[in-house]
Amino acid sequence: MAFSSPAPSSCSLAVSTLSCILLLLLGSSDAQLSTNFYSKTCPNVFTTVKSQVQAAINKEARMGASLLRLFFHDCFVNGCDGSILLDDTSTFTGEKNAVPNKNSARGFDVVDNIKSAVENVCPGVVSCADLLAITARDSVAILGGPSWNVKLGRRDAKTASQSAANNGIPPPTSNLNNLISFFQNVGLSTRDMVALSGSHTIGQARCTSFRARIYNETNLDSSLAQTRQSNCPRTAGSGDNNLAPLDLQSPTKFDNNYYKNLLQNRGLLHSDQQLFNGGSTDSLVRTYGSNPSTFNSDFTAAMIKMGDIKPLTGSSGEIRKNCRKTN
Ligand code: HEM
What we know:
mainly alpha; binds protoporphyrin IX containing FE; globular; 14 helices
């Protein structure tokens, strides 16, 4: 941690010089993120990003979901450092072909467009990691969800890790305890996990992600099972990439229908229905299902927390010119 960074505010009230020095030395992982990070160096970053996100969503509403998911898959793998955006090369293996991302993570062209628009107004200033954070916020807001002030100042990784992506992103086969520990591993609570899962109110999943559930599981509404079976054949390898909406009611609207679905055994993924299956998170699902404003405020707080996961700051990492490769 750089000594030039602002002292934690508790230093002004420091109980002892020693505790203040300790705080300075340890810092907190997001010590240097702030909502006004680019106010002098790139005052137009927000309007520039938003118009690009709006254009992409106008073209395809699902893109908002895909962009939100990119931020999640970035932050859960060695922190919010833009590592997911690096392309594989003959000498470099990145995260794009890790199991949770391959044939699934999308929106990279849109991120390229956002990056070049921002490079046009302030070259070499805004990191790809921060662009993912702003883009996730704008996507949610444009699709009708809450908005929040995004903390900025992340820098871009010079490396990526396919194995960390394979091990750190929860698979749809997870049970409740697995889900809780995946989130706990990055410092997020069970409440954060349930709130962030509300992201599945938008977007699509491939047949391969829900096949086992629609043919084998009993805690699934039978008419939904039948509908989903009609476009997701039982045999593995056939129709694997056929899509179905995660929220059957309003897949391009960010609302609390995800939880209402769970209350009726209409979660599409095995992992979704785990949040309402007789366990410790049932009551929270009921709360979010009946109280959209509680969901919105918990979701917002959890997004900010997720954005604080292990950012590179100070002189660590770099500001990439092109999000697909290191400088
Ligand atoms: C709780 C654990 C989670 C699991 C097991 C999970 C799993 C999945 C799976 C399997 C898909 C479908 C991928 C495919 O079939 O190609 C998906 C889609 C999606 N996930 Fe999650 N996810 C989780 C949490 C989250 C979180 C925390 C966010 C965002 C903050 C998120 C946002 C999304 C979005 C928006 C989509 C749709 C993407 C699109 O349409 O392109 N998910 N998720």
